[in-house]
Amino acid sequence: MTRRIYIFDTTLRDGEQSPGVSLNTGEKLQIARQLARLGVDVIEAGFPVASPGDFEAVRAIAREVRGVTVAGLARTSFHDIDRAWEALREAEQPRIHTFIATSDIHLQHKLRMSREQVIEAAAAAVRRAKGYVSDVEFSAEDASRSEPDFLCRVLETAIAAGATVINIPDTVGYAVPGEFARFIGEIRQRVAGMEKVVLSVHCHDDLGLAVANSLAAVAAGAGQVEGAINGIGERAGNVSLEEVVMALYTRRDQFDCTTGVHTEEIYRTSRLVSNLTGMPVQPNKAVVGKNAFAHEAGIHQDGVLKERTTYEIMNPKMVGISQSSLVLGKHSGRHAFRDRLAELGYDLSGDELNKAFGRFKNLADKKKDITDADLEAIVEDELRPV
Ligand code: KIV
Ligand code: ZN
């Protein structure tokens, strides 16, 4: 039977941990609204104890964004968990996500805790969170480098304490697909109570294997995938959610899984995240890169003109890229201008739109074809005047 895979978006938490990225509450709200439109199941809105700004952003998203679970991250300390709850209390579907590391490297050098102390901390944290919300996620940080017997004991303890989601992070992107699939299979088999909870994976991309590892885990029975739009995040980033979603869809013959994602919103979400974080998307990036559906070689162009599927395994329309890619110039009207901006992830109000349109017309008088980069520069300038 076709399985439903839950998509957990951490663009606003782990994604925002990308070096140099800092979003304010208004920007986080814009992204959260778009993530809800995209149809992700969970938005991890931030780490409320980390800073007053993070707390405010989580609270604003919890208050406003509906139809989606809103999660807040907390270490196992009661102070973290209490702050997470304060930030989340107005959410329609709140989730507290608590975590502690389980690898010996982290226990010895970072936490300076014994294995028994980690087990006690995990149980106490899940119980504390459970006093506030019914939906509690527990993550074993650095799970993929943890000793399996100990990891299984920690996970069993978290489930017995009331966790509803168990997350297996490949925190440092160390796993390789075959091994990670076996690891997930072993956890499913060995951990008592696993059949009652959702088993999740959270892969980082240090070896460029995050998508492969996430898909291998899904094939081995994982029911939730965590990641970020455009794959942003610590170091080499988190798994790129749009790539996972499109791989599950395009190769549904292999996975027999669905997600709740409205794929036509993918491109717009990618542009919005790139614009607001200031992190460009590499041109050859799968699914959302500028060249992802561009055909340069004559043989390829000829093939695609005769029959699109000769060189395209996905229809660009499916990810929200208009096939004809209208060129904007001095004869273009306000409607085409606004539509193109919407595709690029901008939702401008009347006054902003008028000003941006005026600047577009001035530029179009001097330059024949207006590119997406020109449009982005115009809008960025209009929205963020110096
Ligand atoms: O990478 C990681 O281990 C994390 C956890 C906090 C889930 O981001
Ligand atoms: Zn992470």
TrEMBL record:
Example GO biological process: L-leucine biosynthetic process
Q: Does the keyword Transferase apply?
A: yes
Pathway per its UniProt entry is: Amino-acid biosynthesis; L-leucine biosynthesis; L-leucine from 3-methyl-2-oxobutanoate: step 1/4
Please report the stretch or stretches of sequence annotated as the Pyruvate carboxyltransferase domain.
5-267
The record lists the membrane-crossing segments as none
Question: According to its record, what are the GO cellular component terms?
Answer: cytoplasm
Q: Does the keyword Amino-acid biosynthesis apply?
A: yes
Indicate which residues the UniProt annotation says bind Mn(2+): 14, 202, 204, 238
Write down the EC number: 2.3.3.13
Per UniProt, which keywords does this protein have?
Answer: Amino-acid biosynthesis, Branched-chain amino acid biosynthesis, Cytoplasm, Leucine biosynthesis, Manganese, Metal-binding, Transferase
Q: Which cofactor does it need?
A: Mn(2+)
Reactions listed under catalytic activity: 3-methyl-2-oxobutanoate + acetyl-CoA + H2O = (2S)-2-isopropylmalate + CoA + H(+)
Query: What are the protein's GO molecular function terms?
Result: 2-isopropylmalate synthase activity; acetyl-CoA C-acetyltransferase activity; manganese ion binding
What the protein does comes down to: Catalyzes the condensation of the acetyl group of acetyl-CoA with 3-methyl-2-oxobutanoate (2-ketoisovalerate) to form 3-carboxy-3-hydroxy-4-methylpentanoate (2-isopropylmalate).
Query: Which protein family is named in the record?
Result: Belongs to the alpha-IPM synthase/homocitrate synthase family. LeuA type 1 subfamily.
Assembly and oligomerization: Homodimer.
Protein name per the record: 2-isopropylmalate synthase
- What organism is listed for this UniProt entry? Desulfotomaculum copahuensis
Q: What part of the entire protein does this chain span?
A: 1 to 386 of 510
